[in-house]
């Protein structure tokens, strides 16, 4: 969504994902609330239309309200603790950065990373959107606690340099104004108490090169038992439900307002094409996904042979290099023989 009155070429781009884990129902409710405000069906307290329109000038917002539809269906059918998708894979462990590594406390029911990076249609679609959309800010919204996380999830530290400092400054502002200083701030891996491998936020930071990549945890009830997943991840009374939606909707509109001042949009637009190159694996994943989208179920067999295709392609490249080397060596030897046979 964007303000159609904007005539500027350089736009500030925000990409948001909600409902990545089925049991975190409140996150999709927040997405719908944000969309209703953007469409002017509802308004935030203390925010008028003029302020809203001014904030949205030159801002483009892409929202995925419910990334894990099949997981949500399982929860609504009564499996209130389910976080994985319909194939039993944790979508926030299925990305390629540090994929597949398992900690000592690894629980396959909670963190199944899938058979390969991007083995799931949901993560394939999200990756394709991210690369084509090329956002300035990425926010992956979860519940289970109150926290504002930045990379890394698979390391016990945050990135180095000025971009990391800018991310932390923005998170501190959100914590002070909207989280009432309750939210934990820092890297996901260094703050939660465990490392997570193959997450969306680490991929957005390391591969897509999103200047500001975040994971927000918008609600958690630490008094709930482990078996009471609905209460642990979602508010159960109307007052708390309304407060969560109001506070976090306002936080996102603060991002829309302050984000362009934290990031140099011009420098992002001037990133060289070299930074956008992808690996052979990335290329084939995208190619096969596109073929499946075009031909439907008939192309699902390609998923099984993806590893073989990659292997054959690498062997083809290697053999081509060797043949070229042999050819050049033979030409070089032949040239020396011809020269030596010419009388002086």
How would you describe this protein?
The chain crosses the membrane at residues 311-328. Its cofactor is Zn(2+). This is Peptidase M14 domain-containing protein. It comes from Gossypium raimondii (Peruvian cotton). Keywords: Membrane, Transmembrane, Transmembrane helix. By secondary structure, this protein is α/β, with parallel strands linked by helices. It folds into two domains: 12-271, Aminopeptidase; 280-341. Helices cover 48% and strands 10% of the residues. It has 14 helices and six strands. It has helices at residues 25-38, 49-56, 69-76, 108-111, 121-133, 162-177, 188-191, 200-206, 229-233, 238-262, 265-269, 280-295, 301-304, 306-341, and strands spanning 12-17, 59-64, 137-142, 145-150, 184-187, 212-219. It has a six-stranded mixed beta sheet with strand order 2-1-3-6-4-5, with helices on both faces. α6 (162-177) links the parallel β4 and β5. α1 (25-38) packs across α10 (238-262) and α6 runs antiparallel to α10. The longest helix has 36 residues, at 306-341. The radius of gyration is 24 Å and the shape is globular. Mean pLDDT is 84; it is low at 4-8, 270-278, 286-305 and 338-344.
Provide a brief overview of the structure.
The protein is of the alpha/beta class and 344 residues long.
Please count the beta strands (DSSP E, at least 2 residues each). 6
Number of helices: 14
Spans of 5+ residues with little confidence (pLDDT < 50)? 4-8, 270-278, 286-305, 338-344
Q: Describe the biggest sheet?
A: 6 strands, mixed
Strand order within the widest beta sheet:
2-1-3-6-4-5
Gyration radius, to the nearest Å?
Answer: 24 Å
CATH class term of the largest domain: Alpha Beta
CA distance, first residue to last residue: 79 Å
Organism: Gossypium raimondii
InterPro entries: At5g42320_M14_CPD, Peptidase_M14
Keywords: Membrane, Transmembrane, Transmembrane helix
Pfam families: Peptidase_M14 (PF00246)
